[in-house]
Specification:
It is a single chain. 11% of the residues lie in helices and 52% in strands. It has 855 residues and is mostly beta strands. The strands form 9 sheets. The chain has a 22-stranded antiparallel beta barrel. It is globular and about 95 Å long.
């Protein structure tokens, strides 16, 4: 079975590789130019268009410089040389079609004597533009010095569209998109700004293959390839936990440069998690030159937001740099009682404490007050749609989620010569959370039209996460070729505790005539109802080696060795604070090994083929296996991810293009052992690790510049997932039916030509096929006073949601734009839940006007 699957995947990958590789052919030639005297920017753009050359123009270098008239038959190189004559700038081709600009170095010592290493280093930082620095990192064979190259990926980010040569900025192994033999999507700052994607959920909703599922206003779940994503990493740190331990607030994206999503199992770095994928958030970094960015927005439902972003050198000839971001937001929602506000401050400082040593430290304070929003809408007990207005919110107006989050981080990067780097990274996050919850968790009775009950609690929880990792990476020469290696360890510690009050149950709720002010806020007693404690600790050791077998073929292999511990406790208290009873859960997994292997094969300059195998693990030690008189914990669920694909570049390499076919098998899933124990009555024994879930499909993505004026992000996913074997019921049925089989996400932005070049227009659409949920709900029988089980099934047909944008460049510093989401005001369920809860309408049509400035 495995061999036939691999063979079919290989045939698809090879066929796609051959067809896509034939798209690339180019030749250099002379071109007739007839350019008037005009701004240097306009002349360089014209040369780029006429010669199909990507000239990376840094406005801080070019400024208001003027170019002379040009009338001649020239190559691109000669044309650019003529335009730059006397400007103080120089150019350099870093490949056949890409040019970077820099200032002419005037720091040479008189008499032509070479400068010392420190002087050379300082001179380069003064003369190189941001674009030059970044591209020198991407092409070290053409860079000025290897010492500078090794720092560039950590110091500079330039948005020019995504290419497969771009570094994965969060990578602990130093991979580019091409070098990673797995699917990676990069959501750049440019894309985030164009679509006003200010939250992680909003960004992932526009990401290839990702299904976003809303639980409450503060809690969102993400799915990829039919499996949940529960691993987030900050700047490639140890795993960061969300949606657990009372930590429900992911950071605002204003403090991040880009979002990276790897689909499939992350064997080396994710630790305890599913094989769906990993989310990477890359923090903004200080810049070499001073800059200030400002944005103000106003939109539907009184949605107001302001951002200020200032960065640049702080002293010591630019060896100390800083950046500060401030965000304030005051907004309402299409839902009743949707008023929320947020204030965020982020600061970061980088210091070159020695020629090859850099220290980074910073922090974030994030204060947020949002409506709790409940758990969404229920359905009729048989799964029928209530057809309530989209503004319906079945929570009282006092139900709120309030959180103050303080985040501190530090990092040391130590370079050893030109080939080796040591990174030490630490983060500590503390959140003080108050969650006043009142929610429905019951279907609507068709006869009475009422919801059986509304439940509520108030939680004062303080989760603290401490993350630490150390990685050393480098390259060595063997048999005349250079190979790469990375070794490291990471550590995660989470502690969470706090009191919980249980509100009185409210019975017989009318969802069709619900009054948010009709339910008063219960007074809290001096003594809580319960005390909650939980903790988690993960440690891991990882390593990988990337071997250059030939000029075209590289083979990578590695593994992670993990330990995992989990503890949870709940104490029930009487009115004096005494413990009346307790619940305790403790389990661990030791010595879990997750292997990783893959290859990349360079077909030509723009295209590569790749394949990989990676494992993940998810602890299920809370389930016990027989015999019942001496039970033992089940081994973890193992996710085996197999992927084959190609990566390349359309638009002459400027648009990263990826095609992948994959299969994931989720093995060792717990299934009830009918011959041992009493698991049917809710006990944890006994279970067998016999369940197998399979997910398989196809991902296709194009992300970047197709032409100088046209950017495109397009991602298509086909996925099937099912209970494969080992289950007593449901075998062959869909494992995660809320994730659609077909998912298409497109966003394109175009800068109008000629005299209309100040205008940009953008449009996008998200299209998905049908999805459904099914199951059974326990409903109170008013006649008997007991509960009866009622099956339900709800299906939603496929739908499309369109978005649009227009932007006007007022001058070199100011732009104004208008975004419209859900352009045709489509009514649909963004999240399909059960008959009990978790049904959320998609947002109606909304407008957002944004003014941005940059100096």
């Amino acid at each position: 079975m495995i061999c036939s699957s691999v063979d079919s995947l290989a045939r698809v990958a090879v066929a796609a590789t051959l067809s896509m590789a034939m798209l690339n052919a180019n030749a250099q030639t002379t071109v007739p130019f007839d350019l008037p005297a005009q701004s240097l920017v306009e002349s360089l753009r014209a040369v780029g268009d006429l010669t199909d050359t990507n000239i990376l123009i840094d406005r801080s270098l070019v400024g208001e410089l003027q170019a002379p008239a040009l009338s001649a038959q020239l190559t691109a190189n000669d044309a650019i040389t003529a335009l730059l004559a006397g400007s103080g700038l120089q150019h350099r081709f870093i490949d056949d079609h890409t040019v970077v600009l820099s200032r002419i170095d005037t720091t040479a010592v008189p008499g032509g004597q070479p400068m010392g290493a420190a002087e050379t280093h300082a001179g380069l930082w003064r003369t190189l533009s941001l674009s030059t620095l970044m591209l020198a990192f991407l092409n070290p064979q053409n860079a000025y010095t290897a010492e500078v190259d090794d720092e560039l990926a950590q110091n500079t980010i330039v948005v020019t569209g995504t290419t497969i040569e771009d570094p994965i900025l969060s990578s602990r192994t130093g991979d580019t998109v091409r070098e990673r033999p797995q699917s990676v999507t990069v959501i750049s700052r440019e894309l985030l700004d164009q679509q006003n994607l200010n939250s992680v959920a909003a960004a992932l909703d526009q990401t290839t293959g990702i299904t976003v599922s809303t639980v409450s206003f503060s809690t969102t779940q993400f799915y990829s390839r039919g499996l949940e994503i529960n691993t987030v990493q900050l700047d490639g740190s140890a795993p960061f936990v969300f949606n657990d331990f009372g930590y429900n607030q992911l950071p605002d994206l204003a403090i991040y440069e880009q979002v990276e999503v790897m689909r499939g199992a992350d064997a080396l770095f994710s630790g305890n998690g599913e094989a769906g994928g990993t989310i990477q958030l890359v923090r903004k970094r200080p810049t070499e030159t001073a800059q200030i960015q400002f944005a103000a927005s106003a939109g539907s439902w009184s949605n107001y937001r302001g951002e200020l972003d200032a960065a640049g050198p702080l002293g010591f000839d630019g060896r100390v740099r800083g950046r500060m971001v401030y965000v304030t937001e005051d907004s309402d929602s299409y839902l009743k009682n949707g008023q929320s506000n947020r204030d965020l401050v982020f600061g970061i400082i980088e210091a070159d404490v020695a020629e090859q040593t850099k220290v980074t430290f910073g922090g974030t304070h994030d204060s947020r007050d949002t409506p709790y929003g409940g758990l969404g809408l229920p359905r009729y007990s048989d799964g029928g749609d209530l057809r309530l207005p989209r503004s319906t919110s079945l929570v009282p107006d006092w139900a709120r989620f309030k959180a103050r989050t303080n985040d501190l981080f530090a990092r040391v990067d130590q370079q050893f010569g030109s080939d080796w780097n040591l990174r030490v990274n630490a983060t500590r996050t503390k959140q003080q959370m108050t969650n006043m919850r009142e929610f429905v968790y019951s279907p609507v009775d068709r006869e009475t039209g009422l919801i059986g009950a509304m439940y509520g609690t108030e939680e004062h929880i303080t989760p603290v996460q401490t993350l630490f990792d150390v990685t050393i990476k480098g390259q060595f020469e063997l048999f005349g070729r250079k190979h790469k290696v990375a070794l490291g360890t990471d550590w995660q510690d989470i502690e969470s505790d706090g009191p919980v009050w249980v509100y009185p149950t409210v019975n017989s709720i009318d969802p069709f005539n619900f009054d948010p002010g009709s339910i008063g806020q219960p007074a809290l007693s001096a003594i809580p109802s319960r005390n909650s404690t939980s903790s988690q600790r993960q440690t891991g050791i990882y390593g990988s080696v990337n071997l250059a077998i030939t000029d075209a073929l590289r083979v990578v292999g590695g593994a992670r060795y993990s330990n995992y511990e989990y503890k949870w406790g709940l104490d029930f208290l009487d009115t004096t604070g005494g413990v009346t009873s307790s619940l305790r859960t403790e389990f661990e997994d030791r010595g879990v090994l997750t292997p990783y292997a893959g290859f990349t094969y360079t077909i030509n300059r723009d295209w590569s083929a790749y394949g990989s195998f990676a494992e993940s693990y998810r602890s299920q030690a809370t389930y016990l296996q027989g015999p019942a008189d001496a039970p033992s914990p089940l081994d973890p669920v193992v996710g085996e991810s197999l992927e084959l694909g190609i990566k390349g570049g359309l638009g002459d390499g400027r648009a990263a293009t990826q095609i992948a076919v994959y299969r994931i098998q989720r093995k060792n899933d717990a299934v009830l052992d009918f011959y041992e124990g009493d698991g049917l009555n809710g006990s944890s024994c006994c279970y067998l690790g016999n369940g197998v879930v399979e997910s398989r499909g196809l991902d296709v993505e194009v992300n970047g510049q197709l032409t100088r004026q046209w950017n495109l992000f397009a991602g298509y996913t086909y996925n099937e997932n099912e209970y494969k074997s080992g289950y007593t019921s449901g075998q062959g049925t869909t494992y995660m039916p809320k994730t659609p089989k077909h998912l298409l996400k497109v966003w394109t932005n175009y800068e109008l030509p000629g005299s209309l070049s100040q205008w940009q227009v953008g449009a996008g659409v998200n299209v998905q096929s049908s999805n459904y949920v099914s199951g059974s709900a326990s409903v109170l029988d008013p006649d008997t006073g007991g509960f009866v089980s009622i099956p339900y099934r709800f299906a939603q047909g496929g739908y499309a949601v369109a978005n649009a944008r227009v932007q006007y460049e007022i001058n070199d510093h100011w732009t104004a734009s208008l975004n419209v989401t859900n352009l045709f005001d489509k009514t649909y369920y963004q999240t399909v839940g059960t008959s009990l809860y978790a049904n959320w309408y998609g947002q109606p049509r909304a407008f957002m006007a944004v003014v941005r400035a940059k100096w």
